[in-house]
Amino acid sequence: MTVTSPAESAPPGGPGGELAELQPPRLMLDAPVLRACGLSRRYGRVTALQDVDVTLYPREVLGIVGESGSGKSSLLRLLNLEETPQGGSYHLNVPGAQGRDLLTLTRFERRELRVRHIGIVYQNPHLGLRMEHSSSGNVAERLVLAGERSFAALRQAGRVSLAASEFPLERLDDPPRELSGGMQQRVQLAKAIALKPALLLLDEPTTGLDVSVQALVLDTLRRVRRELGVAMVIVSHDLGVIRTLADRVMVMRGGQVVEVGLVDQVLDDPLHPYTQQLVHAKL
Ligand SMILES: Nc1ncnc2c1ncn2[C@@H]1O[C@H](COP(=O)(O)OP(=O)(O)OP(=O)(O)O)[C@@H](O)[C@H]1O
């Protein structure tokens, strides 16, 4: 399906409307940093994603919500170039990839692009971290993949990135298996932002953390967004998290997008019956 962004559907003018009200949100005035069209993914007989379009603007945060099994994590894996869809196209507006459909790249080219331009934080830290290596070593690994070889530079870059994710620096040498869930998410975040990616993907980054830790991690994500200006896609079943972080939200059901729009618009005045059900169930 084709989802038209509010920017694209906004009328150029109208009776009685203030100009400011008619202009698309500032974020949407730039060229998109990410544009994926018609993504489809099947696993055997299960259709995880069907004809999904995603557009993301620079510095924008797009939330993805939907019931369990609606395809949210599958979509993030495709956007992270971990898996290949059976159909669709995917463009990122980053150096070396302009005008190229990323789905046509070789495995090596995709890996390069992922290392340099895409960061991801998984709900399960075991997917994103080596639990036995030191925390700073986990962050350094990404820099090594990008070609950095100097031990001093790796150590310093790891420290800077962990500090940016508000990780306690006295625990730099501790392995993630000895850290709390909130700290493990901070190590994942530090690794994800180490090379200042254009795109940060977050899969339920606060799920499973206790409420006070969740709030701290959300604060850090907001600050990272503000300071790095990175565009983010965040999957969460928690509409409070989406409201706190996201500019727009995309609602998924059965592998398809049923509604997309500005967060307040969709969560306060949902149009699709499924979104209405989702919002009311969470109230
Ligand atoms: N590797 C896989 N092999 C087989 N089926 C899969 C695989 N990954 C996902 N699926 C199926 O694809 C569908 C979408 O799964 P996905 O994990 O993307 O949903 P989700 O919205 O992220 O769910 P949740 O909120 O529970 O994490 C489900 O039916 C799931 O069983």
Key structural traits:
Phosphonate C-P lyase system protein PhnK; alpha/beta; PhnK; three-stranded antiparallel beta sheet; 12 helices; lyase activity; single chain; 9 strands; 283 residues; 2 domains; Rossmann fold; ABC_transporter-like_ATP-bd; binds adenosine-5'-triphosphate; six-stranded mixed beta sheet
CATH topology of the largest domain: Rossmann fold
In what range is the share of β-strand residues?
15-25%
- Counted up, domains total 2
CATH superfamily of the largest domain: P-loop containing nucleotide triphosphate hydrolases
Strand line-up in the sheet with most strands: 5-6-7-3-8-9
What is the subunit arrangement here? single chain
Order of helices and strands: HHEEEHEHEHHHHEHEHEEHH
Small molecules bound in the structure, each named once: adenosine-5'-triphosphate
Distance separating the two termini: 29 Å
DSSP strand tally: 9
The radius of gyration is: 19 Å
Give the CATH architecture of the largest domain. Answer: 3-Layer(aba) Sandwich
Overall pLDDT score: 89
Globular, elongated, flat, extended or rod-shaped: what is the shape?
A: globular
- Class from helix and strand fractions: alpha/beta
- How many helices in DSSP terms? 12
Low-confidence stretches: 1-22
Helix content: 25-40%
Name of the level-1 CATH class of the largest domain = Alpha Beta
Profile the largest sheet: 6 strands, mixed
Keywords: ATP-binding, Lyase, Nucleotide-binding
Protein name: Phosphonate C-P lyase system protein PhnK
Region (Disordered): 1-22
GO molecular function: ATP binding; ATP hydrolysis activity; lyase activity
